[in-house]
Amino acid sequence: MSVDLCGVALRGPVLNGSGTFDALAARRAFGDALLEPDAFPFDAFVSKTITLEPRQGNPPPRLWESPAGMINSIGLPNKGLDGFLREDLPRLAELPVPLVVSVMGFSREELARLVRAVGERDEVAMIELNVSCPNVETGLVMGADPAETAAAVERVRSLAAKPLVVKLTPTASDPAGVGAAAEAAGADALALINTLKGMALDPGSGRPWLGGRSGGVSGPAVRPIALEQVASVSARVGIPVIGMGGIASGRDAHDFLAAGARCVAVGTESFRDPDAGRRIAHELSVISRDERGFSLAGAG
Ligand code: RRO
To answer: Which residues of the chain have pLDDT under 70?
Structure first.
């Protein structure tokens, strides 16, 4: 099931959602065997989002298991651009699949510096612009507004020759409008959905459980929302869509592809099963093979 994503050849359509699988920690836990192409669970690897300056992230607790999913309040902890380029990028480049680096700027100028620096690196196949993180103190989500999203993409478009993937938020009033604005501004692909804002209370104290007070809801609970948004965005744009939101089986992945996505991404399910990407890719290939067999039988 090889796939062309913005001119990058992938062996299959299953990616990870940014920030949901730490490939460097997984390599420490499972050893170099993880780098064998057949063992690595994804067909391309998307990094955790990086920012210009290092960040500690939000205070703990950072996760809450919610019905059919979870709420995260991670808050973008990362080494910053320089630390990422120096320490993480060389090791991520050893993964057996193309690398997508996710970046987020608190201003268009910050985003421009990130895109320029990451875009110069040969190890990087694509850049994801995260305009949809729900867990920043300002509460401002660039991707909620089509004009803001377009302005961000326009600012950085000429700074890197690499494909630009724009990660959309499900909390926009018109996600397809934001997707169309990103496409018109020069985006090469769209990824959706990021998480939906949610909250959980500590049953003991009645106060917010998460250190960041609120967080992003993900997992099967959001899957119908994600599927609808992937269908409506895909119908509106000509560029490829990477669909995600609660995908936990090959059948779920198949649904997102049927709704118009070129690729899918697995996120929350990898917390439960670190090998979920590989399992889902296998289940998907069985479903697709059976479909092909069925249509060939029908044609015969
Ligand atoms: O780090 C986070 O808290 C986070 C990010 Br950057 C994001 O894009 N989506 C999310 O649910 N959490």
So the answer is: 137-140, 299-300
